[in-house]
Design a protein that fits this description.
The structure holds two protein chains of two kinds. Chain A has one domain. Helices cover about 90% and strands about 0% of the residues of chain A. Chain A contains three helices and no strands. By secondary structure, chain B is mainly alpha-helical. Chain B folds into two domains: about 120 residues, no CATH class; about 45 residues. Chain B is built from seven helices and three strands. In chain B, strand 2 and strand 3 form a beta hairpin. In chain B, helix 2 runs antiparallel to helix 3, helix 4 runs antiparallel to helix 6 and helix 5 runs antiparallel to helix 6. Chain B is globular and about 55 Å long. Chain B starts with 16 loop residues before the first helix and ends with a helix. Classes of the chains: A mainly alpha, B mainly alpha. At the A-B interface, helix 1, helix 2 and helix 3 of A face helix 2, helix 4, helix 5 and strand 2 of B.
């Protein structure tokens, strides 16, 4: 019962950060600021949802799967953020030249 | 442009970032030869796939070719130097990583929800002093998780960082991260004392 409550609040907090990431994506002025919102807020959102779900996991295999998914998404989002920003800067330079 | 604060404090004479990176490079271990690397990769990838699919046989249709392709790539690619990871350094890095990613997410969420939209974004340069390979990749990827910073581009031995607020102290936050990454790969005992 207590565990259910903790797991549920972690998922709810995670969702709040996903919403923050989306609000940032819509409100922030340029591509670079939007990347901040997506990489940071959504990253913590996923971590909190994943943590909540591991508390409800029924086997060790399930916990391992959730951790693995979190790890690969975190790695991919930081790397993609960097690549998108680098590409945008390159496009800016070519546009100005 | 800013001076790197973290490393020059502890050493008697300030060492240029590039020289220091070369010195640290020598600390890298030799990679294992080809065939052991191939089999280690095969084993690790097969285990990951197995756990992800609960060792179901029908999932092997996709898993087996992917595992073989991954291990084959490792066999064909030139070996990258291995790095020794310090267990206590890894623990301190994990704590730092967790705290900073929570602070970073809260910071950006507050800015997104704030009616005034408090942003003064811009780019700043920061010299890279960590050696090429794993330490530098970990450093660049973690910059994006710190509050208000995003690693945007690498030019020669500098990283161009996008900041949500250019008034924030970039040298202090990236310097702290540099110390933690060096600690993770047991690279610089002297920077431990300055912390």
């Amino acid at each position: 019962m207590m565990l259910d409550l903790i797991a549920a609040s972690l998922v709810v907090f995670g969702t709040v950060f996903f919403i923050a990431g989306t609000v940032g994506l819509l409100r922030f002025p340029d591509i670079y600021c939007r990347l901040h919102a997506l990489t940071k807020a959504d990253g913590l959102g996923l971590a909190l949802v994943a943590l909540g779900m591991t508390l409800k996991a029924e086997s060790f295999g399930e916990v391992f799967r959730i951790v693995l998914i979190w790890f690969f998404v975190a790695l991919a989002s930081a790397t993609c953020g960097h690549l998108i920003a680098a590409y945008a800067r390159q496009a800016d330079r070519e546009g100005k030249a | 442009m800013l001076d790197p604060v973290s490393f020059s404090e502890a050493s008697p004479a300030p060492v240029p970032a590039q020289v220091r990176a070369l010195q640290l490079q020598e600390r890298a271990c030799k990679p294992p030869p080809r065939w052991p690397r191939f089999f280690i990769t095969l084993l690790v990838l097969a285990l990951i796939w197995g756990v992800l699919t609960e060792f179901r046989l029908d999932a092997m249709v996709f898993g087996l070719p992917a595992v073989l392709a991954g291990a084959g790539l490792v066999f064909l690619m030139p070996a990258t130097p291995g790095w020794r990871i310090s267990p206590s350094g890894a623990f301190r890095f994990a704590v730092f990583f967790a705290v900073q990613s929570v602070l970073g997410a809260i910071d950006v969420a507050m800015r997104a929800f704030s009616p005034r939209l408090p942003l003064s974004p811009g780019f700043r340069h920061y010299p890279l002093s960590l050696p090429m390979g794993a330490p530098r990749i970990v450093f660049l990827n973690t910059i994006t998780l710190l509050p208000g910073t995003l690693s945007a581009e690498v030019e020669a031995d500098e990283v161009i960082v996008h900041m949500l607020d250019t008034q924030a102290d970039l040298a202090a936050s990236l310097g702290a991260l540099e110390v933690r990454v060096a600690d993770l790969f047991s690279l610089s005992p002297q920077s431990e004392n300055s912390k």
